[in-house]
Amino acid sequence: MPPPLLGLLVLGLVAAVISLRRSVRLWKATGVLMLLLVSACARPALSTASPAPLAHTVVALEGTPDCRGYWMASSNGGVFPFGTAEGFGSSTDVHLNKPIVAEESTPDGRGYWLVAGDGNVFLFGDAQGFGSTGSMKLNQPIVDMEDTPDGLGYWLVARDGGIFPFGDAVGYGSTGAIHLNRPIVGMEATPDGRGYWLVASDGGIFPFGDALAYGSTGGVHLNSPIVDMEATPDGRGYWLVASDGGIFPFGDAVGYGSAGGMHLNSPIVGMESTPDGHGYWLYASDGGLFPFGDAAGFGSLGATHF
Q: Are 163 and 154 in contact (CB under 8 A)?
């Protein structure tokens, strides 16, 4: 091969090698950059926030008249029947301005009411509507409801003890204008419907009408606040229940056990007595159920996401 041609060939090979090295460097640089970009996009963001609480909690339980079933109600309006209880509907598909706070079943067990914190009342089965506080301006939210013995009326009670009677329910007094040490958390009507008790979170009892006071925990040191009360069938006593499951019986109410010494995954939020008063259910905000006395367990929502 002539020397000039050989020289051109060598120069071409040198240029090719230089170009190849530059390409390799560029590929390596861009490859590393692309790898970093892919890694950064694929890596999930770390969060130090605590896990979000359950969106909905159990707020009420109502037993059937035959004592062989019950309904659980959740804050989003879900109703969960167990045993002989029948489902007559729920308000989960309704836009709620405030969460559901209480449930009451009709005397024959063929229907129920749900009430929200703003006092809106939702009817199912043979439950009739007699009015609500949904359009009223309330000083404090509604925390509970109680139906009259014939099911033709009901009372709503607010956190400050304000009473709102509808249908054949009669107002016998309230704590709306009284200075309370702790807010009202529940109410119970007397068997004849001519009176009722209000209970505060410190266990203070406020009787009205023909309701009689049989004792309270108002002056007692409580490990946990009172969350609910239940009257005995003859109205001559009642139980108070605390959020740790502690039970406080007064009058002719008998203590059949408590969850006070148990490890609870979620706090107790209420109780329901059996029709004969020889037992009761305690229920927690996660739907856990604790039966005592002649109360039987027919299922719970304790392991259910709802």
A: no
